[in-house]
Specification:
Keywords: Cell membrane, Membrane, Transmembrane, Transmembrane helix. The protein is mostly helical. It is built from three helices and no strands.
């Protein structure tokens, strides 16, 4: 597990949420706070899904953690977009 601390996870979550919202085309309707929430929740979703398929998420490093958050954020935003339609 990375020792990033609370602020580190907020920064990674915010960046992942922002990039995820750009990928999903929802950036115009989201602010910084929502990007952070989407990135952090996305990290939880991404970590859970990767564990389900047998990937060791605990020792991945900074880039792996960011990509996990990004994957989860994109999935979360896709689900929210589908439900809104």
């Amino acid at each position: 597990m990375l020792g990033l601390g609370f602020l580190g996870w907020i920064i990674i979550g915010g960046l992942a949420g922002w990039i995820g919202s750009k990928i999903q085309g929802t950036d115009a309707s989201m602010g910084v706070g929502l990007n952070i929430v989407v990135g952090v929740v996305g990290g939880l979703i991404g970590g859970f899904l990767l564990k389900l398929i047998g990937v060791d998420v605990a020792g991945g490093g900074l880039i792996f953690s960011f990509l996990t958050c990004l994957l989860g954020a994109v999935i979360l935003l896709a689900v929210v977009k589908a439900v809104k339609k």
